[in-house]
Specification:
By secondary structure, the protein is an all-alpha fold. It has one domain. The protein is 71% helix and 0% strand. It has helices at 15-39, 51-57, 65-88, 93-115, 117-130, 142-162, 165-194, 200-228. 24% of the residues are buried. The model has no long low-confidence stretch (mean pLDDT 88).
Length: 242
């Protein structure tokens, strides 16, 4: 009789080192955006044949390096929330649905970041029905998301009250930083665009704030997992000869 050996790989994640690595992706994305703008003053990066290089690093375009980092970081945050919800489904059932909801919300945000739903679908539909606005209302897509943000905030107030202040305060900080970029700086861009001004700096601030917020969130989730001593073991079962 052949004895089956259980083999598994163990990966230890240290919150501070992981967060520093993710912070590096933010710096790389912001640095690339700044670099193409500076080089673009001397070389025509915004026109062929170098247009692809400009788009690859520019934070205002989709499907490039900053978008890739943002989508992956949001996906990682969703996975961590899913891990927490799985463990707390048997221990703290009153928080299970909140963690699961965060997982679903972050999954959608990751998909939106990768596919550009708010720019390619929500934005054009809002312009079709309401027309192009002026000033702060030049971009109208965030009008659809502000009520959603308000509703989600109300739903998660009891959840934040149940958490230790150490974690709830950091979740609130992450949310504030993210909304400052995604909605606050978007309003600034609306004003600048409607007046014909350059938006390179405002785009940099918007995307950087969003990415920093996700890093803060991931760092907090990792600290929560470390404190709760949650682990994840992946095992694949089955007969290899079938």
């Amino acid at each position: 009789m052949q004895k089956t050996l259980n083999r598994y790989a163990q990966v230890n994640l240290r919150p501070h080192k992981m967060s520093l690595f993710l912070l590096g992706t933010v710096v790389l994305s912001a640095g690339g955006h700044i670099l193409v703008h500076l080089v673009g003053k001397f070389i025509a990066l915004h026109r062929p044949p170098l247009l692809g290089v400009f788009r690859f690093f520019h934070m205002g375009f989709e499907g490039n390096l900053p978008t890739y980092f943002s989508a992956l970081n949001l996906l990682l945050a969703a996975g961590l929330c899913g891990l927490i919800s799985f463990h707390e489904s048997t221990t703290k059932k009153n928080l299970f649905f909140h963690w699961l909801g965060m997982c679903g919300l972050l999954l959608f945000m990751s998909f939106d970041e990768a596919s550009g739903i708010h720019d390619r679908i929500v934005g054009p539909i809002s312009i079709y029905f309401m027309g192009r606005g002026e000033g702060i209302m030049y971009y109208r897509w965030y009008l659809f998301f502000i009520p959603i943000v308000f509703a989600v905030s109300l739903i998660y107030i009891p959840f934040l009250k149940r958490l230790p202040l150490f974690f709830s305060s950091r979740f609130i900080l992450a949310g504030f930083v993210f909304l400052s970029g995604s909605i606050g700086m978007e309003m600034v861009e609306s004003i600048l665009t409607s007046q014909g001004h350059s938006v390179g700096v405002s785009i940099l601030l918007e995307e950087t704030l969003e990415m920093l917020a996700v890093v803060i969130l991931i760092h907090t989730l990792l600290l929560y997992i470390a404190k709760a001593n949650y682990t994840l073991k992946l095992q694949v079962s089955g007969n290899p000869h079938r």
